[in-house]
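Hi all, a correction to my earlier message: I attached the wrong file for Phosphoglycerate kinase. Here's the right sequence:
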Amino acid sequence: MEKQSLRDINVSGKKVFIRVDYNVPMDKAGNITNDTRIRATLPTLQYLLENKAAIIIGSHLGRPKGQPVPAFSLSPVAKRLSELLGREIQFAPDCIGPVVAGLAQNLQPGQVLLLENLRYHPEEEKNDAKFSAELAGLADIAVNDAFGVSHRAHASVEGITKFIPAVAGLLMEKEITFLGQAVTNPTRPFVAIIGGAKVSDKIGVIDNLLGKVNTLIIGGGMANTFIAAQGYNTGKSLVETDKLELARELIAKAKAKHVNLLLPSDVVVADKFAADARVKTVSVDAIEEDWMALDIGPATSAVYAAALTDARTVVWNGPMGVFELDVFAKGTEAVAQAVARSAAVSIVGGGDSIAALEKTGLAAKISHISTGGGASLEFLEGKVLPGIAALTDK
Ligand SMILES: Nc1ncnc2c1ncn2[C@@H]1O[C@H](COP(=O)(O)OP(=O)(O)O)[C@@H](O)[C@H]1O
Ligand SMILES: O=C(OP(=O)(O)O)[C@H](O)COP(=O)(O)O
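and the right structure:
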């Protein structure tokens, strides 16, 4: 790796601000439903503790839009981290301000302080210099172990590196090494699978991916925009209406580039977003006004599974449906089974994608589980992620 990592510096007796991605899925009651992103940072935290650093942890959770929204508090994460690390974690009521500065100042080597959600402040996402400087003022060194958010030029990810030396954490190092190897010279056929709900964030990635992959499989919420772009009614489905033209261009571009672009031919529709909804499978040209597409249908699953049989490299971000509800999890399960069965080097990334994969029990069959979804897609595109670019060169 061209960037310095924790191993290249001396952290003994230092205060270290570590940016992590603890944006973990939670249920409505506030229980963490998948803690992979927390567990993935333990080697870095243990390394820092063994090397006698005082640790200040910063993270976002969800998208609270610059407001202190209690449902997005990191408090449940503090509890889980304490259990996993087997030691007490101090939890700060905010991420900046005099109280936090006092807690950071008194922090001793071997102690751990978790800050409250960085996105409670709009300055985080604006990459505000004053906010970055205030975070930097808490510590001597910044460590980026938040691969999952390194495609965002945010204050705690990018801005902070302008004020204190910044290096990669051990998770970041692992992600870069693995994804780098897999995507520099992928064994073909190379298949990318994109689904999930962050459509406007990720649809732009498809343009570049069309220059890299042999087959592109689209499912989940992402598929609905493509279904609408083909002129079909999508009822109450999640659709990004301002991306229809882009979706049409992508369909045309795939054709011109001879990329096998696979879109659903059938979908599972429901009359509401709930486990007890009325549910049926319909062809994509038969979605009725008051219904919403919440999973790919069985015919589509079969086509997608067949397209994965001969794959040699697979990158997957975004579930094929609302997998959290069993009735809409079948498409994701079918694709997970096909990826697991194939001989491909497989990379599955993203907070919800990891949760979906673990629900299928097939996680052990995947070559690399990446903590980043959007980040791994942008890395795959060949983009330099701002959070990585900002780290100190070797
Ligand atoms: N057809 C759909 N309509 C609405 N939401 C969907 C649909 N398919 C999947 N989803 C939702 O997408 C979410 C995950 O999307 P995303 O955040 O993009 O994935 P990741 O976290 O893996 O990057 C899941 O919560 C899932 O319920
Ligand atoms: O969950 C995340 O991304 P992902 O859904 O692409 O895996 C990261 O924590 C980034 O979150 P963001 O997309 O709200 O910036």
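Sorry for the mix-up. The first strand starts at residue 15 and ends at 19.
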